[in-house]
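// run 5 | inverse folding | seed 20
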């Protein structure tokens, strides 16, 4: 029997389209003799759809008519129920479309890469690939991620963070603090997006205020960082779990301006294709052997201390003036699942997907060995439960 793999993609995120590309690539990469692929597309509104029409890229030109070609489905948030149910009940016939064995979240950004969706999967208890709720949530929030990395002595650039409300209450106070701790130029970021959305540089106080105002349109949490002027960006993928992982060869993404943009990342550069794999890049990156091993070490350490799982990508920044290397961020579900980096590391895409499924099943097996409840029922002991006397249900 083939393993039934539910691939979830799309989603309520600014990276919706990128997720569609990642999923199409991943679904096509699976060995179809071993795996049956069930595509589950999450619309921008949050509806779930399945159907063969989801397998071909050209159908995504008109997402509304694509949805009409598909069946609307859902899963119940009940532990152990791996069924995919149809929304519209049939008079005759089954309400279950299929039963999944394992889930691959191929979602990017909010509601998919940040632990929100993983929480649902953990509630159901279905094996799934990639970071769990905790590590995805930490990885997605640039502020909490920095706090953990800092604590674990992983080098990061200086930063200041605040909420939008704190910012609007006293802009000058935060500008003072940023000038005091970092100094211009700085880079302003919403803490939990991706794909460079809302990110920009500020060279003086006026620009700073304008850029933070702009970033605050995207997120309630904001982070300001020291800007690395002579920046060489290097990405390295990590595969495994925090106890046993390997790192890929490194890539250097090529940017058209000073900041790697959405267009640089996904619009295919010179190749005219779309998706992360199509962007302009150097693989392997031009680094000294010492730099390469330092980058791979830091990527692995970042993956380990954040308790990541499956395939992730760690992006580092090299200051070409000083040679200093900083970890910039981790992508819990990297664009194109970083298959092009694994391909260059002699792990072809079909094998990468098989490894992800195996890692998902392994984590589920290991979770099964942990105690999650006591068989003793305190209500059956007599004597009552402290504090519960007279408790009434609210009307
Ligand atoms: N501290 C920094 N100094 C210089 N450039 C930066 C810095 N942080 C980010 N950038 C530029 O902005 C881009 C996007 O920032 P990043 O933190 O990776 O956000 P995202 O999650 O949107 O990818 C980076 O790829 C890099 O080009
Ligand atoms: Mg990035």
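// decoded
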């Amino acid at each position: 029997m083939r393993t039934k793999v539910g691939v979830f993609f799309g989603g309520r995120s600014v990276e919706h389209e990128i997720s569609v590309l990642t999923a199409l690539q991943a679904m096509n990469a699976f060995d179809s003799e071993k795996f049956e692929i069930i595509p589950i597309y999450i619309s921008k509104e949050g509806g779930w759809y399945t159907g063969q029409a989801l397998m071909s890229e050209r159908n995504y030109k008109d997402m509304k008519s694509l949805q009409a070609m598909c069946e609307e489905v859902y899963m119940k948030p009940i532990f152990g129920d791996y069924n995919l149910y149809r929304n519209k009940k049939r008079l005759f016939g089954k309400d279950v479309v299929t039963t999944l064995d394992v889930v691959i979240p191929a979602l990017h950004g909010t509601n998919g890469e940040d632990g929100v969706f993983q929480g649902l999967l953990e509630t159901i208890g279905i094996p799934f690939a990639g970071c769990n709720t905790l590590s995805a949530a930490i990885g997605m929030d640039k502020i909490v991620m920095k706090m953990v990395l800092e604590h674990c002595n992983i080098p990061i650039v200086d930063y200041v963070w605040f909420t939008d409300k704190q910012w609007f209450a006293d802009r000058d106070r935060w500008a003072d603090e940023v000038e005091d701790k970092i100094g211009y130029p700085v880079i302003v970021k919403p803490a939990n997006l991706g794909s460079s959305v809302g990110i920009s540089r500020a060279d003086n106080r006026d620009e700073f205020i304008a850029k933070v105002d702009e970033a605050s349109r995207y997120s309630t949490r904001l982070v300001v960082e020291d800007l690395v002027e002579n920046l060489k960006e290097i990405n390295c993928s990590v595969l495994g779990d925090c106890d046993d992982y390997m790192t890929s060869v490194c890539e250097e993404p090529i940017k058209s301006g000073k900041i790697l943009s959405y267009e640089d990342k996904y619009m295919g550069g010179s190749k005219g294709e779309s998706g992360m794999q199509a962007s302009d890049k150097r693989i392997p990156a031009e680094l000294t052997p010492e730099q390469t091993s330092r980058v791979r070490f830091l990527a692995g350490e970042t993956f380990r201390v954040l308790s990541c799982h499956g395939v992730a990508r760690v992006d580092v920044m090299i200051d070409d003036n000083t040679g200093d290397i900083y970890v910039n961020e981790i992508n819990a579900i990297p664009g194109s699942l970083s298959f092009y980096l694994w391909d260059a590391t002699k792990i072809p895409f079909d094998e990468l997907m098989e490894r992800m499924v195996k890692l998902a099943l392994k984590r589920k097996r290991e979770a099964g060995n942990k105690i999650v409840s006591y068989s003793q029922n305190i209500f059956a002991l007599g004597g009552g439960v402290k504090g519960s006397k007279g408790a009434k249900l609210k009307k």
